[in-house]
Design goal:
The protein is mostly beta strands. The protein has one domain (3-207). It is 6% helix and 44% strand. The protein has 2 helices and 16 strands. A hairpin with a 4-residue loop joins strand 8 (106-112) and strand 9.
């Protein structure tokens, strides 16, 4: 992680930077329909300076549908193989906002299944218009260097939810994250990151439906 990447993001706040923030909001539960993770994302990991760098590459478009916690939203749950902590995040993504929806409204949050969504990311921050935009962090952004607490996933089950901050069309997609988009996480995982080799089988992709 480099200071330059953090400065670059901060310097582009008025133009093309994403916003990341912490949260103490509590998730609710609901009925869930399990979908094969391999249909949606490829996950790889490598060790760097004792940490695990987890790269999530979308294999297909990911819908951005309704407000947070709506049962129509797409939710991924990853079994990390043990307690984990997110220290940094990077992104290289393309997002489309449909109709009257705005690019700034497409969010993803990261947290522990059954716990609190600890981190929000909306790469199109500040783009109050529809259309398609591509956004990059320019590297991994350290959370604590930006005044954001590390995200602790004590149960080892990492939950990602894709949602809209404003619902333009109820129960239908307001936009989508393009196939080929990449999210990168700098994490520590207990036990050793070698357990991530099981992610291709142990991970679940969940779409919550009415």
């Amino acid at each position: 992680m480099t200071k330059l990447a953090i400065i670059a993001v901060a310097g582009l706040a008025a133009a093309a930077s994403a916003q990341i923030s912490g949260s103490t909001g509590v998730q609710t539960s609901g009925s869930e329909h399990v979908i094969n993770l391999a249909d949606y994302a490829n996950i790889t990991t490598q060790r760097v300076d004792g940490n695990a760098i987890v790269t999530i590459t979308f294999l297909s478009d990911i819908d951005s549908v309704d407000l947070e916690l709506d049962p129509d939203n797409v939710v991924f749950v990853f079994d990390m193989g043990g307690p984990a902590t997110i220290h940094g995040i990077g992104w290289d993504v393309t997002i489309t906002a449909l109709g009257s929806s705005w690019l700034t409204e497409a969010y993803v949050n990261f947290g522990a299944l059954g716990g609190t969504p600890g981190l929000y990311l909306h790469p199109g921050a500040g783009f109050s218009n529809p259309g398609t935009g591509s956004y990059s962090s320019g590297g991994i952004i350290d959370l604590t260097d930006n005044g954001i607490p590390d995200v602790v996933i004590a149960n080892g089950m990492m939950r990602l939810e894709f949602f809209e901050s404003f619902d333009d069309v109820s129960n239908a997609r307001d936009g989508f994250w393009h196939a080929g988009s990449v999210l990168t996480l700098d994490m520590t995982i207990v036990p050793a990151p070698g357990a991530l080799a099981l992610l291709g089988l142990g991970g679940l992709a969940i779409r919550r439906r009415r």
